[in-house]
Write a structure and sequence with these properties.
With 132 residues, this protein is an all-alpha fold. Helices cover 81% and strands 0% of the residues. It is elongated, with a radius of gyration of 20 Å. The chain starts with 6 loop residues before the first helix and ends with a helix.
Length: 132
């Protein structure tokens, strides 16, 4: 094994799985900023870094936040796979339920992951100042 077993490899696997989505949606958000907004910033004499931080990123924030939300959901989907390499947590309970064919235990752990996903989604929306 490249990283061994335990929590650290589970985290590394989740990060490797999530990064492309976050990067892609951030790029999509910045590229899809209307040219008229960028031109207005240039007309007022903004430098390249000012255009990025004060014009493009605020305009791309909804798409970037969608990337953050998707990254959270994807990382929660990796819980079961991370448990297979020894990370523990709710993924272990799902794997145990699958191994013993206990639908009730699997449903309980799966619902816990869904509730956690909903709570994290709401927390990120509130933190950014979106809809409550």
């Amino acid at each position: 094994t490249l990283f061994g077993l335990g929590n650290a490899p589970g985290l590394i696997v989740a990060i490797i799985f999530v990064i492309p989505t976050a990067v892609r949606l951030t790029h999509l958000g910045v590229v899809s900023v209307p040219k008229s907004i960028v031109e207005a910033g240039e007309a007022f004499g903004a430098t390249k870094s000012q255009l990025l931080w004060k014009v493009e990123l605020p305009s791309a924030l909804p798409t970037i936040m969608a990337g953050l939300t998707q990254s959270i959901m994807l990382s929660l989907s990796m819980v079961v796979f991370a448990a297979l390499i020894g990370a523990g947590g709710l993924g272990t309970e799902i794997n145990r339920a699958l191994g013993s064919r206990r639908i009730d235990l699997g449903l309980e752990a799966g619902l816990a992951i869904v509730v956690l996903a909903i709570v994290l989604d709401r927390m990120t929306r509130i933190a950014v100042g979106g809809k409550k």
